[in-house]
Amino acid sequence: MDASTQSTELTRSFTAAAWDSIAPIMAEIEALPLLRRLSDGTLPPEVFRHYILQDAIYLKHYARCLAIVAAKAPDNAQVLRFLGSAQKAIVVEQGLHAGFLSQFGITSEEVTAAEPSPACFAYTNFLLATAYHRSYAVALSAILPCFWIYWHVGEAIKNRPAIPGNAFQAWINTYGDPQFAAGAREVIALTDIAARSASPAERAEMSDVFVRASQYEWMFWDSAWRLETWPV
């Protein structure tokens, strides 16, 4: 590695490098039929019902992960900033869920009775285990892809021509909303702050969990498209 390359690597943010590392995963996410057909309004209602029920289960566990990560923050300033950004995302998503549950005729009893799909179960358990057992920096890196990828996808779809009468327009508006974007940017910034004081080994682990969580994001959407259930 020459001096200029080494200098670039030393000054480049952790999150910029992490995002670049998942370019192949993002290409697969952007090509998902669920997202394409959600964008153009042709997603079958039964697929969206499956997705939104799984997302409700996911959010319940994700909120607990965020609370654990906040508790591990090294100072009060980061605790408060993290809780604020996490609250923005959760409030936005809960509002979205409430609207869609009503729109698609999903009852509170159905939400309570819903079982996590294999992909949802694996993803939420990965996040909870990482939040409980790993450092603040590593846990931040695990929860970051959910913020960042949803923001990226929402922005990309929002910038396409709107389809009149798209039943899923509220989903597009939510993840392209400035409030959600602000929460995502704050978590990105906090992850970079944590990475600057992390050891090389810890930064490597941060990179690993960032990639794994990004893979789970693809699996979650793909499983919803396939109406995934437990095979036995």
TrEMBL record:
Annotated ranges, domain Thiaminase-2/PQQC: 20-226
EC code(s) of this entry: 3.5.99.2
InterPro entries: Haem_Oase-like_multi-hlx, Thiaminase-2/PQQC, Thiaminase_II, Thiamine_Salvage_TenA
Catalytic activity annotation: thiamine + H2O = 5-(2-hydroxyethyl)-4-methylthiazole + 4-amino-5-hydroxymethyl-2-methylpyrimidine + H(+); 4-amino-5-aminomethyl-2-methylpyrimidine + H2O = 4-amino-5-hydroxymethyl-2-methylpyrimidine + NH4(+)
Keywords carried by this UniProt record: Hydrolase, Thiamine biosynthesis
Highest taxon above the source species: Bacteria
Enzyme class: hydrolase
Pathway assignment: Cofactor biosynthesis; thiamine diphosphate biosynthesis
Similarity annotation: Belongs to the TenA family.
PANTHER family: BIFUNCTIONAL TH2 PROTEIN, SI:CH1073-67J19.1-RELATED
Function description: Catalyzes an amino-pyrimidine hydrolysis reaction at the C5' of the pyrimidine moiety of thiamine compounds, a reaction that is part of a thiamine salvage pathway.
UniProt name for this protein: Aminopyrimidine aminohydrolase
Organism: Rhizobium lentis
Top-level taxonomy: Bacteria, Pseudomonadati, Pseudomonadota, Alphaproteobacteria, Hyphomicrobiales
